Amino acid sequence: MKLHTLRPAKGSVKTSKRIGRGTGSGRGGTSTKGHKGAKSRSGYSSKIGFEGGQMPLQRRLPKFGFKPLNKIEFKPINLDELLELIEKTGASVIDTALMNQNGLIGKNDKVKVLARGEVKSIKAEIIAHAFSASASEAITNAGGKVTLIG
């Protein structure tokens, strides 16, 4: 095999359509664009969503939804998770930094403590952005302290 005998595989290379090269080529005249209309002109591009004068889909469908700009999203943490954290670390103060170090929350998450799980005694101060009423009651009844972050 020599370099000058190399050929591409059969069927792998197609010859391009040579349009607009006279009527004898079979692709002359209108150059495969049909007769008249905007689509046959140079520089044509349709508007996105234009349906030829029919009412476009984005205008036929109703508007929906609303996203409040000042909504605060809390990461829920339950009492049973906090009890596990207290057992694991033995800390007397549970704050967002400790929760972050142990993978319960992300760095910038706001925390709301919820009341899932039974609490017999908590000898710790729990610092969070929000507490459910039942969670704060359960913590204070079990001997713990609840502190809100502003």
Description:
With 150 residues, the protein is of the alpha/beta class. The chain has a domain at 74-148: Ribosomal Protein L15, Chain: K, domain 2, CATH 3.100.10. The protein has helices spanning 57-60, 79-89, 96-101, 133-141; strands at residues 74-78, 93-94, 110-114, 125-128, 130-131, 145-148. A three-stranded parallel sheet has the order 1-3-5. It is elongated and about 95 Å long. Keywords: Ribonucleoprotein, Ribosomal protein, RNA-binding, rRNA-binding.
Question: What order do the helices and strands come in, and which of them pair?
Answer:
Blueprint: H1 57-60, E1 74-78, H2 79-89, E2 93-94, H3 96-101, E3 110-114, E4 125-128, E5 130-131, H4 133-141, E6 145-148
Parallel strand pairs: 1-3, 2-4, 3-5, 4-6
CATH fold label of the domain at 74-148: Ribosomal Protein L15, Chain: K, domain 2
Number of strands: 6
Give a short account of the largest sheet: 3 strands, parallel
Strand order of the largest sheet: 1-3-5
Distance between the termini: 81 Å
Mean pLDDT: 92
Shape: elongated
What class do helices, strands and sheet pairing give? alpha/beta
What's the alpha carbon Rg, rounded to whole Å?
35 Å
What count of helical segments does DSSP give?
Answer: 4
The run of helices and strands is HEHEHEEEHE
CATH class of the domain at 74-148: Alpha Beta
Strand content is: 5-15%
Residues in helix, %? 10-25%
Low-confidence stretches: none
Which CATH architecture of the domain at 74-148 is right?
Ribosomal Protein L15, Chain: K, domain 2
Please provide a brief summary of the model.
This protein has 150 residues and is of the alpha/beta class. 20% of the residues lie in helices and 15% in strands. The protein has a domain at 74-148: Ribosomal Protein L15, Chain: K, domain 2, CATH 3.100.10.
